[in-house]
Each structure stands twice: as C-alpha cells, then as structure tokens.
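Sample intake sheet
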Amino acid sequence: MSKNPYFIAEIGVNHEAKIKLAKKLIRDAKDGGANAIKLQCYKAEKIASKYAKAYWDKKENIENNQLKLFKKFDKFNEKDYFAIYKYCKKIKIDFIVTPFDLEIVNFFSNKVKYFKISSSDLTNHLLIEKIAKTKVPIILSTGASTISEISSALKLIRKYHNKITLLHCILNYPTEKINSNLNMIDDLKKKFDLPVGLSDHTRPKDSMEILSIAHIKKISMIEKHFTNDKKKPGNDHFHSFDKTDLKNYYKKIDNLNKVLGSGKKTFLESEVISRKNARRSLFFNKNINKGNKVKKEDLIALRPAIGISPSNYKSIINKKLKINVKEGQIIKKKFLF
C-alpha cells in the first residue's frame, strides 16, 4: 500500500491577520486530515520595495503593487504567532512557517517542525544561511528556478545539515493545469537524491487530478493553500482547498491506494480459481503401455491445473511407466518410476 504524502495546509495569510479566523482554519485543516499547517511570516517592508509589481493573476487579485498587498495582512506579532503555535500543539497538528526576513527566524527555531523556504527566496542566500544554521529541517521550494540555482542553495544548506525536502512548484498564481509539468518531480529526484514533494497552485477543480498523478509518482509531501471560503476576493483564496476539498482528496487517495495495491508482485485471493482453471497440467496424448519410457511427444498441456505443471515437464521425460495409460489421462507421479 502506498504511503500517503505528508499534507501541509498552507494557510499563508488567508487568516487575514485575525487570530480567531486563524484558529478556525487550523481546526478545519486538522478535521480535514492535514498533517501540518503553514503560515507565511513577514513584514511588508522587509519583502518588497515600492517598485515591486504583481506576479499573480490580476483577474483574481486586482492589486498591482506587492508592498500594498503584503501590508494588508502583516499585522501579526510574536505574541500572535506564539498563540497560534500553542493552539497547534493543543490540537496536535504540526506547525510550519515560511519566514521572509532574518529577524523572525530565531523566534520560530524551537517551535516549528520545518522551515519552508519560498521559491521566491531560492537565491536569497542571506536568508537561507540564517535558516540553515538553526539546523531545523528545511522544505525548499523550487518554483521558477534552474538546476544550478537549486544546487547552489543546497550546497549552502548542507554546510549545516542535510534534513531537506524539495518541492516541485510552478510559480504561477494560479498554475494552469497544462503548466503543471509533473515530470519535473522525476528530474529533481534523479538529480538531487532527496525526498521530493509538490507545492500545488492549480485551482481546486484541477488539483484532484494533479495531486493524484503526483501521488503515483511517490511524492513525499504536498503543500496546498487552504481557506475556509474559496469565494473570498483577493489573496490566495481562489486557488486554495477548503476542508471539504481536503476530505475529498483523502477519499480519492484512499481509492487510488487500493487501485495501486501493495507493490509486491504475487497473485491475489481473487485469482486462485483462475490459477486452477485457466492454467494447465500435463496429460498423456496417446495410449502407452507399461514399462515404456515417457517421451516429450507423449505429453500435452491441458487445462485445468490439477496435476503436474508443464513447467516441470523435464521431470517426466525418460521415466518408465508402472501402468498402462490412455490418451487424455492426467499424469501422476505415482504412475512413474
């Protein structure tokens, strides 16, 4: 049976800087079956200058200035994050963050299961080094990157530890289904010999198919944006799962696991009758008198498999008959010496 990927419900800032809503999202993620929740932790001025423009679909989020967008939801402080961390401990769901500035890293280093490094920070070696020095396991997202850029980031992390999971990611919000490029998962596995997961930004209507294919590729982890209301305007709500989607995902994966089976080749209980009635045994194809040696041309393999298997026909050749046998008679070892 295939092992289910570790599922991270990426709340990001879909909590809209409201503790009550954050806790509801965390509870929903837990009820839906997620292994972890993840927050994006930042102050707008430490991510973007006033010149940074949108890289998301402006039909879904009309704001064109990153600084203005990020400013809307950067209100949480350390006290708020600590309350969320404590709530995660209380309901027993793993707590993960993506830190976007150096100052916040140390605060989280003894609280998180993983640090996530965003695709957007894959070349931010200042931040990567700070995170790596904590020796907390790292999830490294690889959206919009080259092999050389990934290698450079990994080289830096490995100065301090090798507890790394890579995420295949397409840095589009949303990612169109046609751009999912799931075969990149295989390339990442081959080139880096690390666990590889998927950070999925497709719309929920496409995600079930995308995540099912990724599951077949034996990904170790899934990160999917999470909300309680996919119809909310702006931010990441439009390409998020909600609790119902998450439950449906697990139903789909459970069914897929059944279809995929154990992975160890043997016959099933349902095939036992087929093994008997569709396979063959050795029969005599002519009348032969007692004392004669059995020749290859005296044999015929016929259904059902209730006697000596044709795979063992050589054990019959040149044996003498103890009795007279007739054409169509099944061969038994007691007839031979």
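Comment: Residues 243-260 form the longest helix (18 residues). The chain is about 30% helix and 15% strand.
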